[in-house]
Amino acid sequence: MLKLVRPVLAGVAYLAAFGAAAHGPTPQKVVETVEIAAPIDRVWQAVADFGGIAVWNPALKASEGNGNQPGAKRVLTFANGEKLEEDLDTYDPATHEYDYRMSRANTAALPASSYSVVFRLIPKDQGTQVEWKSRLYRGDTGNEPPPNLTDEAAVEAMRHFFQAGLNNLKARLEKAN
Question: What is the pTM (predicted TM-score) of this model?
Answer without folding.
Answer: 0.86
